[in-house]
Design a protein that fits this description.
The complex is a heterodimer of chains A (266) and B (230).
Chain A: E1 4-9, H1 17-30, E2 35-39, H2 47-51, H3 61-65, H4 71-74, E3 76-77, E4 84-87, H5 100-110, E5 116-120, H6 127-133, E6 138-143, H7 147-162, E7 169-175, H8 177-182, H9 188-195, E8 198-204, H10 207-215, H11 226-238, H12 252-262
Parallel strand pairs in A: 1-5, 1-6, 2-4, 2-5, 6-7, 7-8
Antiparallel strand pairs in A: 3-4
Helix pairs in contact in A: 1-11, 5-6
Chain B: H1 2-6, E1 10-15, E2 18-23, H2 28-41, H3 43-46, E3 50-56, H4 62-74, E4 78-84, H5 87-95, E5 123-126, E6 135-138, E7 141-145, E8 153-156, E9 160-166, E10 169-172, E11 182-187, E12 191-194, E13 197-200, E14 211-216, E15 219-224
Parallel strand pairs in B: 2-3, 3-4, 5-7, 6-8, 7-9, 8-10, 9-11, 10-12
Antiparallel strand pairs in B: 1-2, 11-14, 12-13, 14-15
Classes of the chains: A alpha/beta (266), B alpha/beta (230).
Chain lengths: 266, 230
């Protein structure tokens, strides 16, 4: 096995990086792949909570980097999916406890063992982001259909391109079809026109995401939810499948336009 | 000495126009005979030649030149020029329609051609989209093929030309050049600055299309590009 290292990032906080990481990890593992996700948000860890693995942390990322434990010991196995692991962040330290080259070494150690390494990047463009981006083979940029989130995504994409970690792929999260229809929210075309990168998924706003996060059971476990299905579709696209974009409401031509926009782009 | 001058020297040289024969000074008949003898000896070499004759100081009249020309002509040689130091000989040559100079190109005829190549001015060319946080600083003109997104900035001492959308910041004529302009295919910048004048652009009533911003009476004016305007 040679893992693909995927960094999930956004620039702006609160757009759904951690939710996306957790759900993609669940979706990929549910499709039969072996997945390790790494919480890069040292000092403000969340991924363990969303995955429902909070009470099983013994060792963390900083313990591995500083040699207090072996990599295996810090990998928490999920209770529902045998092939899903979490390496949690340390809560009592800060971003400077880990360097970009530590992350590269750690991922190189993981690469032969698993199919996917998903890194949840912290918000911002500083040390934590640099740590998360350093080992990446591919970057997923999460944004919301809001001007502020799109601006930050543009900045992040520029930095990813400058580090030659691209091409970055875009996830538009929390799109509300009703607001878009009323003209009160940017639509996916507007976002894509500004960011000019390839879209890999649109996740509709779905209250199940909040409910399941609080329960510690990511929405991707439940494919009856729209968001869960959207995350699974992204996971399948990551695996190289051609999955059509699902209609978010009755406006079919809207999505056919999007998929047309996607095809010619790189 | 007498013996030397008794035998005139004849120098033959190939030139662009044919052959140039230089004769030594001396009694004209002797010299002429020596020439004719030499021609007879090298008949095949002279056959069909165009001949220019340098007669030096010899003073010759039209009759003498005419008879030489006829004799040469009999041998298949055409005499076209007689070069001499004597005005009398020159006049005689001209009478016979012979040239008196080899170089027919007059010195004043070379006219310098009009220079149609331009030197141009210093400029930098950027072929990519400028995302938020990226900047270009340049002493000279800046040309971008691509979009300039919000949060990106361009500063130039000259013009800023954008083949794409200008949505970020642009400062042309930095350092005080009030003649600098900013052009874009679609102009919705966050801040526009020319020399030391700045302008917040109202993008609400914006129609997409090529526009040019320039200083008019100390204020920035954004005009839609008009192909008819000069």
């Amino acid at each position: 096995m040679t893992a693909k290292v995927v960094t999930v990032t956004s620039g702006k906080g609160g757009v759904g990086k951690t939710t996306t990481t957790a759900n993609l990890a669940v979706a990929l593992a549910a499709l039969g792949d072996k997945v390790v996700c790494i919480d890069g948000d040292i000092g403000l860890r969340n991924l363990d909570v969303i995955l429902g693995l909070e009470n099983r942390i013994v060792y963390d990322l900083v313990d591995v980097v500083e040699g207090r434990c072996r990599l295996r010991q810090a990998m928490i196995r999920d209770k529902r999916l045998e092939e899903l692991y979490l390496i949690p962040a340390a809560q009592t330290r800060d971003k400077s406890a880990v360097s970009p080259s530590d992350m590269v070494h750690l991922c190189d150690e993981l690469r032969p063992e698993v199919d996917w390494v998903l890194i949840d990047s912290p918000a911002g463009i500083e040390r934590g982001f640099r740590n998360a981006l350093a080992p990446a083979d591919m970057a997923l940029v999460v944004t919301n259909p809001e001007i502020s989130a799109v601006r930050d995504a543009d900045r992040i994409i520029g930095l990813i391109e400058a580090e030659e970690k691209g091409p970055a792929r875009l996830i538009i999260n929390r799109l509300n079809p009703v607001l878009v229809k009323r003209g009160d929210m940017l639509n996916a075309e507007d976002v894509l026109e500004l960011l000019a990168i390839q879209l890999i998924g649109i996740v509709p706003e779905d209250e199940n995401v909040v409910v399941s996060a609080n329960r510690g059971s990511p929405v991707a476990f439940d494919l009856k939810t729209r968001a869960g299905l959207a995350f699974q579709n992204i996971a399948r696209r990551l695996k190289g499948e051609e999955v059509p974009f699902m209609p978010l409401d009755d406006k079919d031509d809207f999505f056919s336009r999007i998929s047309r926009m996607m095809r010619p782009g790189g | 000495m007498a013996e030397l001058s008794a035998r005139p020297t004849i120098q033959i040289k190939g030139i662009r126009e044919g052959l140039l024969v230089t004769l030594s000074d001396g009694d004209w008949l002797t010299v002429q005979n020596a020439l004719l003898v030499q021609i007879e000896e090298q008949r095949s070499f002279f056959q069909g030649a165009k001949l220019a004759l340098d007669v030096g100081n010899a003073i010759l009249h039209a009759a003498e030149l005419g008879s030489l020309r006829d004799k040469l002509s009999d041998k298949g040689i055409s005499l076209w020029a007689v070069i001499s130091n004597s005005p009398t000989t020159d006049t005689a040559s001209q009478l016979l329609g012979l040239a008196t100079r080899l170089n027919t190109v007059r010195p004043d005829r070379s006219i310098k051609s009009i220079d149609t190549s331009l030197d141009g001015e210093a400029a930098v060319m950027v072929q990519r989209n400028l995302r938020s946080g990226f900047t270009i600083n340049f002493e000279g003109h800046v040309c971008v093929m691509g979009d300039v997104n919000p949060g990106a900035e361009i500063r130039a001492s000259g013009n800023v030309i954008i083949w794409g959308r200008l949505k970020g910041g642009a400062h042309a004529g930095e350092g005080g050049n009030g003649n600098a302009v900013v052009c874009a295919l679609d102009m919705t910048p966050t801040v526009l600055r020319i020399a030391d004048v700045e302008m917040i652009v109202d993008n609400r009533k914006h129609k997409p299309g090529p526009q040019i911003a320039r200083l008019v009476n100390g204020k920035i004016e954004v005009q839609t590009w008009d192909p008819k305007e000069r």
